[in-house]
Amino acid sequence: MFFCGIDGGGTTTTAVVCDECGKIQGSFKAGSINHYGVGLEKARENYVAIKEQLIRLLGSEPDITYIGNSALDGEATDEVVQQLVGGIFHKKILMHSDVYIALLGFTRGASGALLISGTGSMACAIDQEGNFHTSGGWGQILGDEGSGYHLGMAGIQAAIHFHDQMAPPTLLLERLLAFYRLNNLADLIEIVYGSSPEKGNIAAFAIEVEKAAQQGDEVSIRLIDDEVEWLFRLSESILKKSGVKCLGLYGSMLVKSPIIGPQLIARYSGSDVKLSYPRFKPEIGALFGAFTHENISLDKEIIANLSLY
Fold it and tell me: What is the secondary structure of 126-163 as a DSSP string?
């Protein structure tokens, strides 16, 4: 019996396959399956490509495939599953949000909460009764406070405001011109409003805000303090909704940032909230979901084998 776990992010999809003992059979990358981002037709084309790679790997479809899709905010109905993969996959398909499988990678289905901050931001949790909760995740237009995009855009705006003599001086203007290789600030308009603007291009500037803060730039320091405050509020929100005291930290802003993660951790110093980092990647979390659905206990052998991924 073979299981497939899929992490369908906004730009890239990762699939991993294992047997009933958790032994990894292989993994691969594929195109986005986010039908809001690439359109339903393209998403279905990418599902076809995923199935073809799975057949090359196994000789047939996996017996059960658990998909975490970034276009979803909860468990997919049968109608949604049929719309997305009907006529493509012919064996058992389970589908939930990508944040849910990331949470499973942290809790393995037990109660706990996960704070996510990368390009976007969101928090989710499973409470003691097994209910799923979320906070944030509204996207860059409605929110995404505490994210790389939010900090990157705030840094860009601070640089523009200084340029227009509307705000205090900041190193961010110089860094903005250098980072995007601009001859003049007006060239920024094409990057932000061009034919195919990417959230990642904006979020990438968050690193420059951190570098400026490390140089003592007061504007950048304030911007980072604001993002840490938003992340603290987001984490407090999900902890309150779920009633749990175990919080995982996930995403580049929390794991790789030399400033934001440590500052948020400091906010919880002396509290009864236990902070830690997920041991398993989201695609492995999807495998946990598949095993659990089949009433297969995640025993020591399975965990040990999946730990080798």
Answer: E-TT--EEEEE--HHHH--TTSHHHHHHHHHHHHHHHH
Same domain, 158 and 217: yes
Q: Cα(120)–Cα(147) distance, rounded to whole angstroms? A: 5
What is the CATH number for 59?
3.30.420.40
pTM score: 0.89
Is 127 within a domain?
no
Assess whether 155 and 49 both reside in one domain: no
What residue spans of the chain are helical by DSSP H? 35-38, 40-58, 78-85, 98-107, 139-142, 148-163, 172-179, 188-193, 199-203, 206-214, 218-242, 252-255, 260-267, 282-293, 300-306
Phi first, then psi, for residue 155 (nearest 5°) are -65, -40
Flag whether 116 is in a domain. no
pLDDT in tens, 212-239: 999 999 999 999 999 999 999 999 999 9
Residue in this structure with the two tokens 């052998």, named with its chain if needed: 301
Query: Which residue type, as a one-letter code, is found at position 195?
Result: S
Question: 153-165 b/e with 16+ CB inside 10 Å = b?
Answer: bbbbebbbbbbee
Q: Tell me the CA end-to-end span of the chain in Å, nearest whole number.
A: 19
Same domain, residue pair 206 and 293:
no
